[in-house]
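ugh ok fine here u go
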Amino acid sequence: MSTVLIVDNDDSLRAVLRTLLEQGGGFDFCIEAAGGTEAIDKARLLLPHLAILNFSLPEMNGMQLAQELREIMPRLPIFMLTADHNLCVEKEALSLGIDAVFSKLGDLETLPANARAVCEINRDEHRRDFPHHNTE
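structure:
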């Protein structure tokens, strides 16, 4: 079972992402959070397979949240959403270990396929590290 943590303060965008991932992405469960503190609490409790974070959040920005989540789950794949194609933000995000950066304005249709791919890679690495542990 694959679980995605979606963190954005826009309820309607979270709903769109949830639909994309559950219907088109093949994910079993999406956890939603409107801000960083809520996201950290839910991540600790539910241990998602992927986090999708908005860069602009009310309590802390997406970069700060990504660092907090990596403290909890060091190998958690993380995608960052930005309002536009900002090369500086993308470079900073990638330098901090964010797996991919997507624009909310034009990249969302590619997000489910990328999410599936990164979760498959992680699942394969887990099987290699723990061959007798079932991740399904």
